[in-house]
Design a protein that fits this description.
single chain; five-stranded mixed β-sheet; alpha+beta
Amino acid sequence: MSNRFDSQRDRIKALEQEIQAIKQAIVSQPLEIGRPTLPLNTLTFRIEEIFVALPIESTIEVTPMVLVTPLPAAPPSVRGTISYRGRLIPVLDPGQAFFERIKPLTTDRFLVIAKDNQRMYALVADQPEGVIRITESDLDSAAQLASIPKFVHFIANIDQQAVILLDPGRLLVENNLDSLEELLKEIQGGREKA
């Protein structure tokens, strides 16, 4: 059992080092809401059988699953909150948005801590995969014509595998994260006073 956790920790550490190296090499401005400029370095992870990517600029850390506190009356894809370095952040489940079903938050799953402008959030992932560079030639033109969810920037074809680039800003807007963040600030303020 500990060998599995040790290998997960080693893989997470290697991914974090790769992310940090790429972030240091990037001189562009942080990613704004809208279609990103290609080529683009991304962190890829799996949600069930789907390969999903986030821009490196949005990615802060990959961590093993921790206790998620549910939020009453939150949208289904908002699984709750976690305390990240003393700050409450929402936990979003893109898998729920793709498959419209809720998968248990078990210890073999991961959280991708990310940011969009000033907001931080965590995304539930089944398995971190690695860092890839998406170029214009990787875009799957047939998939772009299909009806894709608003929270997807585009679909790339990398080594015969579809990779979905998430639009974190849209995912946050669709889940009404602005009002959720106000609630989290109120909760955080109450915790600090206690």
